[in-house]
Amino acid sequence: MSENAFVRVTRDGPVLTLTIDRAEVRNALNPEAHAEMAAAFDAFAADDDLRVAVVTGAGDKAFCVGSDLKYRAATGLDIKPATGFAGITERFDLDKPVIAAVNGDAIGGGLEIVLASDLAVAVEGARFGLPEPKVGLAAAGGLHRIVRQIPAKWANEIVFTGRLFDARRAAELGLVNRVVAREDLAGAVAELAAAIVANAPLSLRASKAMMRDGLAAGGVAEAFAGSYPAYEAMLASEDAVEGPRAFAEKRIPAWKGR
Predict the structure, then answer these.
(1) What pLDDT, in 10s, does the model give residues 173-216?
(2) Which of 115, 189, 210, 254 suits 98 as a labelling partner, its CA being 20 to 30 A distant?
């Protein structure tokens, strides 16, 4: 358990959970909360024994509603870490899976966290949106992600109107993997995390890196021709020998992550 002021960090074996703990302001982030999230993600990235991160919010009203605008109005400050909103939106070299456990409204920067996560499970009743134009702002990096993750016309409507939409619509658009009853959120996320950590850690890292970097390469031919160090490291690993051997011997692989 962390001793942070605004972000609770808990560990359960290879799964790290980051809980934004500012329910009184619907889990909006101020500069200190941003810094705590960034530090937690730094630790996650550096620890080879950690395989999956889960991001969620305290309470049952909000996942995260973005920046703390009252704090910003009072101080004039909107300081974020180099790795972006919540320490994740501009973290482009993280090769481990991140799951957003959307326990409530994911609005503004909250939706940006969901867009930056690899998987998302949302509770029924959660609302999503990028309403920044309603307060004279823009969603910054969220704009680049949403137009790449859903059809442009739908992205345009979400951004230009600033309207909120529900979890079922988010699932239809592909912004979340599934929608569950509130009482089922923890179990659904735990099941998903368990399914991930059952696989070879270097295979997961190589897969995420190849999908991410392959998309940046342009066309499929360019992606195939690219160089992927994580993939080469996976092929040269002990786990690449263990996996086929365990399959042949009809047993569960004993992954070492090396």
Answers:
(1) 999 999 999 999 999 999 999 999 999 999 999 999 999 999 88
(2) 254
Report pLDDT digits (tens) over 212-256. Answer: 999 888 889 999 988 899 999 989 999 999 999 999 999 999 999
Which sequence positions are flagged as catalytic? Answer: 112, 132
Residue where the block lists tokens 């870490």: 81
- Residue 178 CB: number of other CB atoms within 10 A? 13
Do residues 206 and 230 lie in contact, with contact meaning Cβ atoms separated by under 8 Å? yes
CA angle 77, 82, 87 (to 5 degrees): 90
Tokens at residue 101, please? 């456990």
Classified as helix, coil or strand, 127 is strand
d(C-alpha 9, C-alpha 38), whole Å: 12
Q: Is 165 helix (H, G, I), strand (E, B) or coil?
A: strand
Closest residue by Cα to residue 176 from 118, 215, 132: 118
Q: Label the pairing between strands 98-102 and 119-123.
A: parallel
The answer to whether 59 and 46 are in contact (CB under 8 A) is no
